[in-house]
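Deliverable D2.4 — example input (structure tokens):
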């Protein structure tokens, strides 16, 4: 069970990995910074836009591991390949 402390869009100042798809995100990426308490531990995660969209389709309390949201990209409409910058995928 997690409790969200902060969730906001940021333009990154250093490289991060998206927790949802485990893809490297370069400096200047627009990512969702999600800070939460997860089973008593402070977690600070970053999510790319497609993974943030996939996370909205999950039920409250659904848990996922690093990279698990990539599978959900195929169900997004419009397809991420239609709206992500060239080279992202
Ligand atoms: Zn992602």
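Example output (designed residues):
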């Amino acid at each position: 069970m997690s409790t969200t402390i902060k969730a906001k869009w940021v333009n990154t100042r250093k490289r991060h990995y998206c927790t949802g798809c485990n893809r490297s995100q370069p400096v200047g990426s627009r990512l969702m910074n999600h800070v939460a308490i997860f089973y008593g531990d402070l977690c600070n995660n970053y999510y790319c836009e497609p993974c943030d969209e996939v996370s909205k389709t999950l039920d409250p309390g659904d848990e996922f591991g690093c990279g698990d949201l990539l599978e959900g990209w195929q169900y997004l409409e419009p397809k991420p390949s239609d709206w992500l910058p060239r080279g992202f995928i």
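The two ends are 31 Å apart (CA to CA).
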